[in-house]
Write a structure and sequence with these properties.
Layout (H helix, E strand, L loop, with lengths): L2 H11 L3 H12 L4 H7 L1 H4 L4 H30 L5 H8 L4 H8 L9 H7 L3 H8 L6 H5 L10 H17 L2 H11 L3 E6 L1 H5 L11 E5 L5 H12 L3 E5 L3 H15 L5 H51 L9 E5 L6 E6 L5 E7 L8 H14 L4 E5 L4 H10 L7 E5 L4 H5 L2 H6 L5 H14 L1 H5 L18 H19 L1 E2 L5 H4 L6 H15 L16 H7 L3 E2 L17 H11 L3 H4 L3 H4 L14 H12 L29 E9 L3 E5 L6 E4 L13 E10 L4 E6 L3
Parallel strand pairs: 4-7, 7-8, 9-10, 13-15
Antiparallel strand pairs: 1-2, 1-3, 4-5, 5-6, 11-12, 11-14, 12-13, 14-15
Helix pairs in contact: 1-2, 1-5, 2-5, 3-5, 8-11, 9-11, 11-16, 12-15, 12-16, 14-16, 15-16, 16-23
Amino acid sequence: MKSLYIKEIARKLSVKDWQVENCIGLFEEGATIPFISRYRKEKTGGLDDMAVAEIKHWSDVFSEMDKRKAGILATIEEQGKLTPELKSQIENCLVSSELEDLYLPYRPKRRTRATVAKEKGLEPLADKMWNLQVSDPESEARKYLNDNVVDVQDALSGARDILAERFSESAKIRDSLRQIFRTRRVESKATKSAATDPEASKYRAYFNFSMPLQRIPSHNLLAILRAEKEGFLSVGLDADPEKCGKKIYYDFCQEKRYPGPKLAEQIREAVDDSFKRLLEPSISNEVLKEAKEKADIESIAVFGENLTQLLLSPPVGQKRTMAIDPGFRNGCKIACLDEHGNLLYHSIIYPHPPQSEKIKSIMAVSDMIERYGIEVIAIGNGTASRETEDFVKKVGIPDNVKVYTVSEDGASIYSASEVARKEFPDEDVTVRGAVSIGRRLMDPLAELVKIDPKSLGIGQYQHDVDQNLLREKLDNTVAICVNSVGVNLNTASPYLLSYVSGIGPALATNIVSYRNSEGGFSSREQLHDVPKLGPKAFEQCAGFLRIHGAANPLDNSAVHPECYHIVSKMAADLGVSSKELVGNEALIKKIDPSKYVEGEFGLPTINDILKELSKPGLDPRQEAQEFSFADDIHEIEDLKAGMELPGIVTNVTAFGAFVDIGIHENGLIHVSQMRGEKLKLHQKVQVSVLSVDLDRNRISLRLLKQ
């Protein structure tokens, strides 16, 4: 990649040029973000996965820009208009809007008023006016009268159309106006359809709205632009036409000189027309698009952070699980799973109205708990969740069986998906949904990777933001989470394996097929036998795959096979085997890291090895904790201002956090009521009820001291 791009990426991310250059070199060699951040710290200077992901993003952006530049240069050269100065400007451009400004005068365009004027032979007149070579435009215009130009005013009007287009294509003028527009206010007003369509009521706050563009929160801007798209608002920037016109005229004259009074009148008229007809709509759209891109980035960052917290939610681990998808009329769907998440049995009970088969349901649940050795119970948090939780607690379950509430978001999407049909071809969607709820409790990461993150209920305007940027962020987030935890090579589903560094869907399928035919993996070296898994894929994936009970304990650690010889040397120097060294804190403390630095493996790698040897294969996720809502709160009508209640954070946005307090509606803690704290998804909190709006089912909460 060209040095100007490397320097710009380094500047944007506040890192060194060599760090960017090395990362890009590794990407070009086929390395992934998790691999680079975990196993190539010497080359990156210890950049974390998010920084490496940013470098990858910007390297892709500038690679595309370079292709665009090549196309632009070729087009201008074909026109015979490519000067050395213009070529240099294009080649050294780093901002896409500026690049498009440079290209604008040469871009093939549709028929315009300026085109028509040129066809009438008026371009020479416009050239003379543009170059200030006439003092009396009317006298000069008489020279251009012909069958298509009937009078002087017609000639001057055509010349002004050409001038107006030139103003609109001036890179300097466009940049000047962008600077002005960025400082203006965004204004929105209700359209006629907003008055008659009930759907518009949710945008009522923006029916007569005005705020400086630089200060408007991302969620407000995205809401306004969505409402505009739906036809409920008209949106614009309050740029001052007079001020902008003066700026255009000043920029024009600064490059030449000030014209005489008669020519100045014509030029000012062309300036006003250019601003009103061409520049204002174009620059306004550009600046709003630019502001939306920033809002998209903020919104996507929030989504990514929420997704990370969700995927890394504490698992209960390999425990026999009863999963309950609660319901009233259609009953509670129950799935009993073994410790590996395999379906053992499923049934439906009807403990709630209208059937109210409480005794029969109690007996059924008690029997299933005993028959399948149930250790934990997962209850979906949808309709009838609280009622089902209360019912289960009255069953008289053993003291060692713990009850958890699990988010149902996306379960219905999964149950109807191709993934679910492949896993459970003989079961209906209700059974699949219950199984998903249970598996989410056992291992949220392994289960949630099967579901489109946009269906998990944790985003902020996720359908309004740049979908390509969102997909890139979510894919990176999932991959980073999966690889940070590590994957059990002998139990992971192909969907989980596909996110492991260097693998992907095709190799994941091959790994599972090999596992099934060979009875599992006993060492990482066996990966070489998987069809189409070559040396590069092995390098990228091996360190993230775990083999429990392997003969070589390093195969169940994050130590990469390329460093096994270093561990062997450490063990030999201590007079023990590698197996005896792993997990032996006393021996590990005797090791001098600097003694084992060699070649590309510097102190960062050696220190990572020692850390991993101390606690090999440690799951970075915390252990799941039980939680109970207030016993006397079941409906929104039960709430009163001033009540203090326990809750669970279900979504975090730029404007606040939504909290489940055990009823059918989540409450909102606005950022102004967070006491300066930053909340996380699924965090247990204590809140106070500020107000309850029964008409709109809205609950305002305040965060209490945690």
